[in-house]
Write a structure and sequence with these properties.
425 residues, alpha/beta, FAD/NAD(P)-binding domain, 6-stranded mixed β-sheet, two-stranded antiparallel sheet, 15% strand, globular, binds flavin-adenine dinucleotide, binds 2-acetamido-2-deoxy-beta-D-glucopyranose, FAD
C-alpha cells in the first residue's frame, strides 16, 4: 500500500511538471479523443477502476485566463481557445458562409460556452428513443441529468443585486406574447417558452464550472491510470481487420509543438469525443464515411457509412439589438460605460464573490418553436423552408441518409399549458 501511494505521489509530481505534453506509454486500455465535456467525464468514470488505464488526447491546452474562470465573461467568445473554421456556403441562405465556433482547450465547450443550463424538451429525447435507442428518452435520461448537476439556488441578496432592475420590464414583454408560454423552470423538459436560465457556476467559489474543474482537476494528481495529453491532435484512427468490420485499435497523433507524429494503441476501445464538428471529420479522415466524399478527397474507404458528417442540426445565432431608453441604474451598459461602477463590482467580486461579476450575463431565455416565427420578415424563411423540412427531406444534402423518423416534430405546447413547479435538480 505504502509503495503504491508513494508511486502515485511521484507520478503526481511529474504530471504537474511536464508530463502532460508527452504520452508516457504507447498502449492504454482506452484512448479518448477529445478532452472536452464528454471526453473528460468518460475518462473520469473509467479511471474510477484503478486497473483501467486511459489516455485522453486533447488538441488544446489548459486555460487559466480570467475569461475561462469568471462568470461575467460567459459571452465573451474567447477566440484564443476557439478554432473558427468557415462553413461551406449554405444554398438555403444565399450561399452565405459562417464562422463556426469550435473549442480547442482542456474542458472543451464548457470553457467558452455561454454557461446557460437548459435541458431540451421531453419530445427531443423521446425522439431519440423512438429512433431505436432504449433508455435515451426523457425518463431514462433524467436521473443522469440530476446526477451530473448540483443546484445552488441564488440567495435572496443575489436575486435583488444580480438582476438589473429593468429585467422586470423585459419579462413583462415576454408575458405580453400570448403565444409564448412562461415556464417556471427551464429544466423540466417543457419545450418552447420563456425561462429563468440557471448558469453553470461552481457555487463554492462562484467560478465557471467546467468539465476540467469538475472531472479532471479533482483527480489529476491521484490517478496515475488517467493521463491527459494536451497539445496533440488526433489525425487518424487506426484499425485492425478490414471492411466490412474494421476494429479501431489506435490513433495517430501529431504534436502541435513540433509536428512530430506517433501512434498510440488501445487494448479495449478508442472513444471519440472530439465534438460535433471534429468527430465526423476524424472518422472521414480515417476512411469511415460516405464513400463518394472520401473518394473525392483521395481517402481510402474502410467503411462506407453515409451518416458520418450528415444531419448536423446547428444552433444558429442571430443578434437582435434594441435601443432601450430611460434605463434604470445600474443596467448592463453601466459595466462598459461607468469605470467607477466597473471597479466597484470587481472589488466586490474579489472580496465577497458577489455582484454582477459573479453572474453570467444571461439569466433569461425564450425558446421559440418555429411556428412562433411566422409574423415578420422571418415568415418567408420559416414557412417555406424550415417548416417544410419537418415533413420532407428536400433541404438535406444529397448524400444524407433519409429516414423520415429523423424528422419527428416536437409538439409545440399550447399557451394554456399550466406552469410546472420549479424543477432544477
Ligand atoms: C460559443 C459557444 C457557446 C455555447 N453556449 C452554450 C450554453 O450556453 N449552454 C450549453 O448548454 N451549451 C452551450 N454550448 C455547447 C456546449 O459547449 C457543447 O454542447 C459541449 O461542449 C459539447 O461537448 P463535446 O464533449 O461533444 O465537445 P467539446 O466540449 O467541444 O469537446 C471536444 C474536444 O475535443 C478536442 N478535439 C477536437 N478534435 C480533436 C482532435 N482531432 N484531436 C484531439 N482533440 C480534439 C477539442 O479541442 C475539444 O476540447 C456552446 C458552445 C459554444 C462553442
Ligand atoms: C487488471 O487488468 C489486467 C489486464 O487488463 C487483467 O489481466 C487483471 O486481471 C486485472 N486485475 C484486476 C484486479 O481486475
Ligand atoms: C449557390 O451556389 C450554387 C453552386 O455554386 C449555385 O448553383 C446557386 O445558384 C447559388 N445560389 C444563390 C442563391 O446564389
Ligand atoms: C491539478 O488540479 C489542481 C486543482 O485541483 C490545479 O491546481 C493543478 O494545476 C492541476 N494540475 C494539472 C497538471 O492540471
Ligand atoms: C506544422 O505543419 C504545418 C503544416 O505543414 C505548418 O503550417 C506549421 O507551421 C508546422 N508547425 C510547426 C510547429 O512546425
Ligand atoms: C516534439 O514535441 C513533443 C512534445 O510535444 C516531444 O515529446 C517530442 O520529443 C518532440 N519531438 C521532436 C522530434 O522534437
Ligand atoms: C423613466 O422611468 C421611471 C422609473 O421607472 C418612470 O417613473 C418615468 O416615468 C420614466 N420616464 C419616461 C420618460 O418614460
Ligand atoms: C457610476 O457608478 C458610480 C458607482 O456605482 C455611481 O455612484 C455613479 O452615479 C455612476 N455614474 C453615472 C453617470 O451613472
Ligand atoms: C463585502 O461584503 C461586506 C459585508 O456585506 C461589505 O461590508 C463590504 O463592503 C463588501 N466588500 C466590497 C468590496 O464590496
Ligand atoms: C402564426 O402564429 C399564430 C400563433 O401561433 C397563429 O395564430 C397564426 O395562424 C399563424 N399564422 C400563419 C400564417 O401561420
Amino acid at each position: 500500500m505504502r509503495t503504491r501511494i508513494t508511486h502515485a505521489l511521484l507520478l503526481a509530481q511529474s504530471i504537474t511538471t511536464a508530463v502532460t505534453t508527452q504520452a508516457r506509454d504507447n498502449t492504454y486500455d482506452y484512448i479518448v479523443v477529445g478532452g472536452g465535456v464528454s471526453g473528460l467525464v468518460v475518462a473520469n468514470r473509467l479511471t474510477e477502476d484503478k486497473n483501467v488505464s486511459v489516455l485522453v488526447i486533447e488538441r488544446g491546452y489548459f486555460d487559466d485566463k480570467p475569461e475561462a474562470i469568471v462568470p461575467y465573461y460567459a459571452n465573451s467568445l474567447d477566440l484564443d481557445v476557439l478554432i473558427s473554421p468557415t462553413s461551406a456556403p449554405n444554398p438555403q441562405l444565399n450561399n452565405d458562409t459562417f464562422s463556426v465556433a469550435v473549442p480547442a482547450v482542456v474542458g472543451g465547450g464548457s470553457v467558452v460556452n455561454g454557461m446557460g443550463y437548459l435541458r431540451g424538451s421531453k419530445e427531443d429525447y423521446d425522439a431519440w428513443e423512438a429512433l431505436g435507442n432504449p433508455g435515451w428518452g426523457w425518463d431514462g435520461l433524467l436521473p443522469y441529468f440530476r446526477k451530473s448537476t448540483t443546484f445552488t439556488p441564488p440567495t435572496s441578496d443575489a436575486v435583488r443585486d444580480f438582476q438589473y432592475p429593468d429585467i422586470a420590464t423585459i419579462w413583462d414583454a415576454f408575458r405580453s406574447q400570448d403565444d409564448v408560454p412562461v415556464r417556471a423552470g427551464g429544466n423540466a423538459g417543457d419545450g418552447p417558452g420563456a425561462y429563468w436560465l440557471p448558469s453553470t457556476i461552481d457555487g463554492r467559489g462562484m467560478t465557471r464550472s467546467t468539465a476540467r474543474k469538475a472531472y479532471y482537476d479533482p483527480v489529476n494528481t491521484t490517478r496515475p491510470n488517467l493521463h491527459l495529453l494536451t497539445g496533440h491532435t488526433a489525425r487518424e484512427i487506426l484499425f485492425t481487420g478490414s471492411a466490412p468490420s474494421p476494429t479501431a485499435n489506435g490513433v495517430r497523433i501529431v504534436s502541435r509543438a513540433n509536428n512530430s507524429t506517433r501512434q498510440v494503441y488501445a487494448r479495449k476501445e478508442v472513444i471519440l469525443a472530439a465534438g460535433a464538428i471534429q468527430t465526423p471529420q476524424l472518422l472521414q479522415a480515417s476512411g469511415i464515411g460516405p464513400s463518394s466524399v472520401l473518394k473525392a478527397a483521395g481517402i481510402r474507404v474502410k467503411k462506407d457509412l453515409p451518416a458520418v458528417g450528415a444531419n448536423l442540426q446547428d444552433h444558429a445565432t442571430t443578434i437582435l439589438i434594441f435601443s432601450l431608453t430611460n434605463q434604470s441604474f445600474p443596467n448592463p451598459d453601466t459595466i462598459t460605460t461607468n469605470t467607477t461602477y466597473f471597479a466597484a463590482i470587481w472589488a466586490e467580486y474579489l472580496a465577497n464573490l458577489t455582484g454582477p461579476i459573479s453572474a453570467a450575463p444571461a439569466s433569461s431565455a425564450i425558446l421559440f418553436g418555429l411556428p412562433h416565427l411566422n409574423s415578420s420578415a422571418a415568415a418567408s424563411v420559416t414557412s417555406t423552408k424550415l417548416l417544410s423540412q419537418s415533413s420532407t427531406l428536400t433541404y438535406l444534402p444529397s448524400n444524407a441518409p433519409s429516414s423520415p423518423n429523423l424528422f419527428l416534430s416536437p409538439a409545440v405546447p399550447s399557451p394554456s399549458t399550466p406552469l410546472t413547479p420549479l424543477d432544477y435538480q
